[in-house]
Write a structure and sequence with these properties.
The chain is α+β, with helices and mostly antiparallel strands and 358 residues long. The protein is built from 17 helices and 8 strands. It has a 4-stranded antiparallel β-sheet, with helices on both faces. Strands 3-8 form a two-stranded parallel sheet. Strands 5-6 form a two-stranded antiparallel sheet.
């Protein structure tokens, strides 16, 4: 009789699976792989958006549009894109009572540490690990600081889809993801694009206070509160001031109403992205009193620091004018003589709003 022995052989996980496991170990909750080839349809949509002027004052979008249209337009040697998402899921829905009616509102993403620093540190750690596994690879890491279309690449890699509000939506993490990307010369196995799961829903379109969506999947930044309070440097057009309400940095409305957020879990949020108490529920009077030095000290390590004191105080004055709180009049009156003409003009508008009717 011949006895046959079954010999078990250890299997080595693929580089792709090991990469994803390492990414999750470093704090990324979503990771997928996409081809690096340029996508003509994606490039055409970008050109149409720019031609319509929807980018507003963001001239840098148009200046490098040729590079922005795809990974290989930026770096011809790129073979694959690793798209990653890090959760910043809030403790409470920004639109629920007790949150939406606070004196001043800062967008959820800006209530904690600067995500650029947190995400980039994890991306670099993952990049070092990949080089250790494949010394022959070359790579580049990106997090919102280069002409990289992270949201379409996230969709192409399967970690989510670009929703009707133009942001990435994840089935597991809703709308609360910071995105990063690694371009590598390796030819990794792609995961396949994610299907669009928005269906007939238009909650994000209907929630926008300034009607910034001329059509689903199309954003006119010139009407967007996030653009107006962060990117726009001049006076905020009067037609949008009342709609801005108490928002002093960004807006979460179109994200917060997304039904997919019911699957988002605060436990998945990266520990370094927890909100600061003073930014989750800020004191508007205190913020109006900030000079440049105090502004820099308060927002050290925060993404808010990038807009500078003048733009931020301008936003706070709009919120003050909308507050209906005459107790803020002394701070507003003092800012009428501010050295920055945009701040001074916003103060005069706010004071008029706070003045009792004749």
């Amino acid at each position: 009789m011949v006895t046959r022995f079954m010999v078990k052989t250890a299997t080595t996980p693929s580089l792709e699976n090991a990469l994803k496991a390492k990414a999750r170990e470093l704090g990324f909750v979503a990771v997928g792989i996409a081809p690096a080839q340029d996508d003509p349809l994606r490039a055409e949509r970008l050109r149409e958006w720019l031609d319509a002027g929807y980018h507003g004052d963001m001239g840098w979008m148009a200046d490098r549009a040729d590079v922005r249209q795809g990974p290989q337009s930026m770096w011809p040697e790129a073979g694959s894109v690793i798209a990653l998402g890090m959760s910043y899921a809030p403790d409470r829905n920004p639109r629920e009572p007790g949150v939406v009616d606070r004196e001043a509102a800062i967008s959820v993403y800006a209530q904690g540490r600067d995500y650029h620093d947190v995400v980039k540190k994890a991306l670099k750690a993952l990049a070092r690990w990949l080089v250790e596994q494949r010394p022959e690879t070359q790579l580049k890491v990106f997090v919102d600081t280069a002409p990289v279309m992270e949201k379409p690449l996230g969709e192409a890699s399967g970690i989510g889809w670009q929703g009707k509000h133009t942001n990435l939506v994840s089935r597991e993490h809703g709308s609360w993801l910071f995105l990063g990307a690694i371009y590598t010369t390796l030819a990794l196995e792609p995961d396949g694009a994610h299907d669009d799961r928005c269906g007939s829903c238009r909650a994000c379109q209907d929630a926008c206070p300034t009607n910034a969506f001329p059509a689903p999947y199309r954003l006119d930044a010139r009407r967007c509160i996030s653009y107006l309070t962060i990117e726009h440097k001049g006076p905020i057009p009067e037609e949008f001031r009342e709609a801005i309400g108490n928002r002093i940095y960004g807006c979460d409305d179109c994200l917060a109403v997304c039904p997919w957020n019911k699957f988002a879990d605060t436990a998945a949020r990266h520990t370094k992205l927890a909100p600061r108490e003073d930014l989750a529920d800020p004191d508007l009077g205190e913020l109006l009193a900030l000079d440049d030095a105090a502004f820099r000290a308060k927002f050290s390590g925060s993404p808010i620091k990038r807009v500078g004191r003048n733009r931020f105080v301008r936003n706070c004055l709009i919120a003050a004018g909308n507050s209906g709180k005459p107790t803020l009049r002394p701070q507003v009156e003092a800012l009428q003589q501010d050295a920055d003409p945009v701040v001074a003009e916003a103060a005069r508008w706010a004071l008029e709003k706070l003045s009792p009717s004749p």
